[in-house]
Structures are given as C-alpha cells and as structure tokens.
Structure of Transglutaminase family protein:
Amino acid sequence: MKYKIHHKTVYRYTEPVRRSVHELRLVPRTGPLQSVQDWTLTAPGNLSEARDGFGNIVHNFTLSGPAQTISITATGEVEVMISPLDEAESPGHHGFHDLPDAGESRVSPLYFAAATPLTQAPAALRAFAAPFLAAGHDVPALLALADGIADRVRYSANTTHVGTSAADAFALGSGVCQDQAQVMVAACRAFGIPARYVSGYFYDPAATSMASHAWADVCLDAASALWCSIDVTHRCLTDGRHVRLAVGRDYASAAPIRGILEGGTGETMEVEIAITPIPPMAPVPAAD
C-alpha cells in the first residue's frame, strides 16, 4: 500500500507565547516495513535535524518572539511493505529485523526491557499477563495477550490523557490506543521481554478519528534485533494500514510533538490528518 499523508497541527493561545522550544518526531524513516518516498516538514522556525538513540528522525526549532499561533505541517508519501518471518523463526507470521544503518548508533533492544514511569506494571497487571506469557512469548502468545488487553482496557475516547500511565489505564479499564499500547509494553517488560511504544498513522476510511495511532513492538530475539509489531486496538499484527513515525520507551519518548513554553496561556489545539491511498500505476503496454 502507498499513501499520501497530510498532518497539520495548529496551536492557538489567548496570551502570546513569549518563547518556546519544540521537538518533533513527524518524519517517518525508511526501514524494513516501509519506504518513505517523499516528505516535507514545515514549522515557524529554523529546523535542525538529528537521529535519536532509537533511530527516529528528530527535528527541533525555537521561537524567540511573541506568537499567538504555532502551525506545524508534515506532508509526504510512504509505501508500506510487510515482510514475512523466516519459517524457522515464527511459522506463518510477520516480523522484521530492525538493525541500525551503517554508521548509525542505536540502543540495544535490551534497553527496552526496563520499565519507565508510564510503563510500570503493578501486581494486578503482572498477574493478568502471566497466563499469556507463561509458556513464552512467541507471536501467537503475544496476539492472545493483545486480545486480552483490548478486552480489559476497552477503547473509549476522552477517558485518559497523554500523561496517563499503563497502571492507571489498566485500573480504569478504558483508554485509547496510546493506553492499550503502553499496557502491552508494560506487561511484556514485567516479564523481561523488550517492548517499545510506536507512534504512527492508521488508514481506515471509516474511522478517520483514529488516523493518528499507536501500537507496540515486541522483541522476539534481541541478538538479531528481530521484532514483531502488534496493534492492540485492532487485535492484530500490523499490516498495510500502518505507517510508522517513531518508536520509544513510552509515549513521552515517541510523541510527535513536544514543547516547552514561556507564556502562552489559554492553549487550544486543532489537528487535521488526511491519509489518501495512491493507486498503483498501470503497467505500460509492451511495444508491438
């Protein structure tokens, strides 16, 4: 599948922002599951680009003057590819080796085995996950765990916020994709299984409110950086509907937009995301 994506975020303030520093993870990278064929990022400042220790493309900009509106737009084209695992690794399922590019420094998959404040697993969550992971963490076991989490933490908009932890969402019994992904990550890490949070986009013409999405990567073999990618909300392995933006230890380290402001009271935010499939090009007829 190939998509054209338009993602615009506008912040408005009743009192102007006097100064602000912003960190963006709004540029997807080409990797084993997708090819980024065109991408443009615009913001009201000079953008500097770097790679973080997780392999994400990160941009920063600073505003030093008063501003009542801050608008950030990302637009581009991405082709999604799904690669099957070797039959010896996991028969009939999908996975990918996510190794750093030549010359790139990146943390070990084992770094994703440690909990964070947003992904702590209380005793109740550990007890819930134990039966699913008792015999190991192959793909069928992980999918069963994801299905159980989707039942236990029901999808419900506007019941949580970006600072809600996995423990809080699990206790509440509801949340959004961010919460379900963090509960999955927390459950895996509680048993020493490296897992990471993924931010991205999900194409469903019937559910445009879920265009901005989150899911979890779970490491099947740290030595070869072999991962599987699981969408808890849709109870499935990721497929041609998923476009990856960034990975992190939790939402905070993979958030598309983060910022620190001086001033800027009365903030409101408007987000517009459009994902349009690009039809494949018709083959050129052979010459007679």
